[in-house]
Each structure stands twice: as structure tokens, then as C-alpha cells.
Amino acid sequence: MIMHYKGSCSCNRWQVEVEVTRSLEEFNPRVCDCNYCQNNPSEIISDPNMIIKFVGGETSITQNGDQLANFYYCDYCGDFLAVGRNLNGQLRGAVNSSLLHSSNQLGESIQIQPRLLCSDEKLDRWGKLWGVLNGI
Ligand SMILES: [Zn+2]
Ligand SMILES: [Zn+2]
User: Fold this and answer.
1) Bridge partner list, 18
2) Strand 59-63 and strand 30-32: pairing?
3) What pLDDT is attached to residue 115?
4) Whole-angstrom Cα distance, residue 45 to residue 24?
5) Among 26, 57, 83, 88, which one has the highest count of C-beta atoms within 10 angstroms of its own C-beta?
């Protein structure tokens, strides 16, 4: 079964639609404990079957400490949109779950510690965890 959840950033210039094969209750938003994410708090969700479609305006992009991933922000309101990178020629990533209108349906948040992983391990993990990112 395929379900769609919609969301937007605070200023509504960015709309997002997330296509998933399980309901939001089964997703545990991930909170990362690295320095970058502690300074830029966010909760993200993804799975390999997720299709994340963004429609909207401009992004500003920053990279975290090890430069492996791009963090996309709405260029107008500054809301965090998604994190992602190219993996094997395809843009993959995880979406900021707070953008979703029904984010209150999400499961409990969990803490993750990707800083304990080396670069290869991160890329491997993201390949198994991230969805397909479009339009950003
Ligand atoms: Zn915005
Ligand atoms: Zn982090």
C-alpha cells in the first residue's frame, strides 16, 4: 500500500510530498547528536522505499563537518528541508519530518550517532536508509 503525506516549510514556498509504503506511526524520526546537528536541531525520516518530492523556490545548501552530505534549507524562511547526496548517480536523502502536516502521527524519536561511523560506513548506511530525493 502506498501512502502520501504532505508538508511545507514555514513560509510555504517549499511544498513536500512524501510517498511511503508504511504509515507514519512506523517511522521514528532520527535526531543526530553531531556538533552540526546540535547547533541546527532537526528530526529526519527516510527509508529506502520513500520517495520525497519537493516543489518550490530556492534552497541554500550547507555541508556538515565531514562534507559528505548536503543540508538543504529554504532560502527564504531558513527552514531545514532535507539532507542528501548523490549515491550511485541518484540523489538520495532524508526529509525533515517536522515539515509534514501530520508529523504528530510519527513514532517516537530516536537518537543516532553517525559521527561514530567512518565515511565508508556512513555512505553504506545512507544507501540502505535514505529515500529518493526529487525537486530540490
Ligand atoms: Zn520557507
Ligand atoms: Zn549530525
Assistant:
1) 5, 52
2) unpaired
3) 83
4) 9
5) 83
- pLDDT over 90 for what percent of the chain? 85
Residues whose beta carbons lie less than 5 angstroms from ion ligand 1: 9, 11, 13, 74, 76-77
Distance from the alpha carbon of residue 25 to the mean position of ligand 1, in angstroms: 26
When pLDDT is cut at 50, 70 and 90, the band that residue 4 belongs to is very high
Positive or negative torsion for Cα 4, 12, 58, 76: negative
Give the chain's domains with CATH numbers.
Answer: 3-134 (2.170.150.70)
Each residue of 39-66: pLDDT tens digit? 888 999 999 999 999 999 899 999 877 8
Element (H, E) at 38: helix 35-39
Starting from the CA of residue 69, give the closest ligand: 2
Name which of 50, 65, 62 is nearest 19 in CA terms.
50
